[in-house]
Design goal:
Blueprint lengths: L17 H17 L7 E5 L14 E8 L7 E7 L4 E5 L1 H12 L8 H16 L4 E5 L12 E3 L10 H25 L1
Length: 188
């Protein structure tokens, strides 16, 4: 069975922390939305949290990758999200091409610009629905800050967020889950 045919894991795990469950849920939604798409022989996915806890949000970073359908080919990391920090990043095709040249030299870069742009635009809209402050990385970040990189969306909260804000977010997540459960039970 290939990675793309694996049955999905249990949606709710009582052992997961709130941040880990939220990250898992968003990754599942991302895969449901984009997992059947193909971008130049790659399938978009979002990495799930590696465990049942994100360490209070310190390990909440999730990568967005294009998994190659060709065995032995590397995945292409096209972005990342941190739902705890309300921040995300997507890389442009040009940024990915530059990173490919840095890593592989003159090896052919197989990602079609037009196909990637369609995915990029759809993924950007998807991520903005989660009120993430999105950064568009137009040049590789190790080259230093770029005037081409720009922040789009709502500003991310600072590290000095009020505990009341976190409690408010937790209550909203609990209410949303409760409404979803009520909606499901009334459909049955």
């Amino acid at each position: 069975m290939s990675d793309f045919e694996k049955p999905s894991r249990k949606a709710f795990d009582a052992n997961r922390t709130q941040h880990a469950q939220l990250a898992f849920d968003v990754a599942q939604l991302f895969v449901a939305r984009f997992g059947k798409d193909e971008v130049s022989g790659y399938v978009p996915t979002m990495r799930e949290p590696s465990g049942v806890s994100t360490g209070g949000g310190r390990q909440a970073l999730q990568h967005i990758v294009l998994e190659s359908k060709t065995p032995g080919e590397s995945a292409v990391t096209v972005g990342q999200v941190n739902l705890v920090a309300h921040a995300g990043k997507l890389r442009t095709h040009d940024c990915l091409r530059q990173l490919h040249v840095q890593r592989f030299g003159q090896k052919t870069f197989a990602l079609d610009a037009a196909a990637y742009q369609v995915f990029f635009d759809q993924a950007h809209r998807f991520l903005l629905k989660y009120s993430l402050a999105m950064v568009i990385e137009a040049t590789p970040s190790d080259a230093g800050p770029s005037a081409e990189s720009r922040r789009v969306g709502t500003p991310a909260p600072t590290a000095k967020s009020s505990p009341f804000a976190l409690v408010g977010i937790a209550l909203l997540v609990i209410l949303a889950a409760g409404f979803a459960i009520l909606k499901l039970t009334h459909k049955l």
